[in-house]
Amino acid sequence: DQQVKQNSPSLSVQEGRISILNCDYTNSMFDYFLWYKKYPAEGPTFLISISSIKDKSEDGRFTVFLNKSAKHLSLHIVPSQPGDSAVYFCAAIPNTGNQFYFGTGTSLTVIP
Amino acid sequence: KAGVTQTPRYLIKTRGQQVTLSCSPISGHRSVSWYQQTPGQGLQFLFEYFSETQRNKGNFPGRFSGRQFSNSRSEMNVSTLELGDSALYLCASSLAQSEETQYFGPGTRLLVL
After folding, report:
1. B7 to chain A, minimum CA–CA distance in Å?
2. Which of A35, A102, B27, B72 has the fewest CB within 10 Å, making it most exposed?
């Protein structure tokens, strides 16, 4: 049973525009969320995280929004750059802190 | 500081065989987690080792096992391979058990024929 879902397997965005990647979760025990970025032939790299006590976290061009009531989070990339083209994974950790739960990933293509 | 390394990078096996994958964490990291990545399934958690002990285990059959050595290096073993075991196996390390930020290795791509 997939507790973290990324319903869009792929997304294409024009360079300079905003990329919005979505993630939904079902487990109300999740209290920490992370986004990872993965290039082909490389392992995922940590991008940005957010605790459930916040509703927004920013790091440069990357912003995560968390809507706890909707069990939804989104990653915004502004402005999008061709180097952002990668697979993005959303991950969640329950408050028991015992394991990561990952989504299935969204492949982002930024068109120059 | 060197990153997480995994060996081998690619592997081809046949059904019924067994395989051992190796992971060397970042120096000083004591926690190692293993994941299986398949198309459409994302990253599925296999297990986590900390101080040579398995601390957490995902929902995988007993054919999947692992261990961690005193230098924090970890191995994962899959016995009686099945076609469905073909996947990218990723290892991630962190300083402490269940720490929020993990650092991933490049993965071992296993193909079972």
Report:
1. 13
2. B27
Residue with tokens 């019924």: B16
d(Cα A2, Cα B41) in Å, to the nearest integer?
8
A41 burial via Cβ count (<10 Å: 0-12, 13-18, 19+): exposed
Q: Which of A103, A97, A111 is nearest to A30 (CA)?
A: A97
Phi, psi of A105 (to 5 degrees): 95, 150
Determine the pLDDT at residue B34. Answer: 96
Which of the four pLDDT bands, split at 50, 70 and 90, describes residue A15? very high
How far apart, in whole angstroms, are the C-alpha atoms of residue A63 and residue A49?
Answer: 9
What does the alpha-carbon distance between residue B93 and residue A107 come to, in Å, rounded to a whole number?
Answer: 24
Substitution target from B6, B9, B37 for chain A, most A beta carbons within 10 A: B37
For residue B56, the chain A residues in CB contact (below 8 A) are 98-99
At B98 the pLDDT is 61
A93 Cβ contact list (under 8 Å, min separation 6):
A30, A31, A32, A33, A34, A99, A100, A101, B98, B100
Retrieve residue B79's tokens. Answer: 């016995």
> In this model, does residue B100 exceed pLDDT 80?
no
- Rounded Cα distance between A93 and B26, Å, is 22
